[in-house]
Every structure is written in structure tokens, then in C-alpha cells.
């Protein structure tokens, strides 16, 4: 194993836990709060972001590349700092590619871009 590499089983476990968190968030939205992505996309995406955000940032903070020079809290801080930056880039890309623009769709675009930022950072 080289510097900063993880095993295939650990990578599989990471992706499985992220998928379980996403499924749990959607289950809470669907069954617990009676939300759906079609009827109320902003609230559903916000709930998914609140459930999935700590899971992804926490899990990927544990498998940082340089454990000697980067503490867990520093890795979490980097994840929290990278979230709005990535969300801004994702929102800009979505608007360029034709996402609806306006006050009615603004919250949905923000929550969607934050959620996509989580998934983008987790795969780097």
C-alpha cells in the first residue's frame, strides 16, 4: 500500500455507508415528513442535505490522506469550507446548463447544488 491509499473493502464500506445515509434521509423525508422531490423539492433537498452532510463529511474526514499532518478536525473543517465553494460552482454550472432561474426556484437550486457538492467532494 502506498501513501494515502485505502483498501478496496474500506472504499466499498465508505460508499455503502453514504448510500445508506442517502436512503435513510429519503426515507425520513418520504415517510416521516411526508415530503417528495416532486411536490416540495426545496424542503426535501434541505432534509437530504441535513441528513447526508454530516455523514459524508464525517466519514471522508476519517479517511484523510495524510493522518500525521492533518487532524480529523482539520479534515472536517476543510469539508465544511469546500461545501459552499463547490455548491457555488455547481449552481453556476446548473444555471449555465439551463436550470430555471427566479425566486421561486432559488432555494431548490441552492439545496441541490449543496447536495451535489457533497457528492462531488466525496468522490475526489
Automatic annotation (TrEMBL):
Family matches, as Pfam families: PIG-F (PF06699)
**Pathway(s) the chain acts in:** Glycolipid biosynthesis; glycosylphosphatidylinositol-anchor biosynthesis
Q: Does the keyword Ubl conjugation apply?
A: no
Gene Ontology terms: biological process: GPI anchor biosynthetic process
Which cellular component appears as one GO term in the record? endoplasmic reticulum membrane
The UniProt entry lists the main location of this chain as endoplasmic reticulum
Q: Where in the cell is it found?
A: Endoplasmic reticulum membrane
Task: Give the UniProt keywords, A-Z.
Answer: Endoplasmic reticulum, GPI-anchor biosynthesis, Membrane, Transmembrane, Transmembrane helix
Membrane-crossing ranges are 12-32, 44-63, 75-97
* Its membrane topology: Multi-pass membrane protein
Q: What is this protein called?
A: Glycosylphosphatidylinositol anchor biosynthesis protein 11
Task: Please tell me the species this chain comes from.
Answer: Musa troglodytarum (fe'i banana)
Amino acid at each position: 500500500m502506498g501513501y494515502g491509499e485505502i483498501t478496496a473493502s474500506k472504499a466499498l464500506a465508505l460508499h455503502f455507508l453514504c448510500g445508506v445515509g442517502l436512503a435513510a434521509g429519503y426515507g425520513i423525508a418520504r415517510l416521516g415528513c411526508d415530503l417528495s422531490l416532486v411536490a416540495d423539492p426545496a424542503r426535501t433537498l434541505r432534509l437530504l442535505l441535513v441528513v447526508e452532510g454530516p455523514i459524508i463529511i464525517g466519514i471522508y474526514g476519517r479517511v484523510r490522506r495524510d493522518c500525521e499532518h492533518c487532524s480529523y478536525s482539520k479534515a472536517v473543517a476543510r469539508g465544511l469550507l469546500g461545501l459552499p465553494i463547490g455548491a457555488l460552482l455547481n449552481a453556476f454550472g446548473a444555471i449555465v446548463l439551463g436550470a430555471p432561474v427566479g425566486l421561486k426556484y432559488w432555494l431548490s437550486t441552492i439545496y441541490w447544488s449543496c447536495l451535489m457538492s457533497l457528492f462531488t467532494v466525496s468522490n475526489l
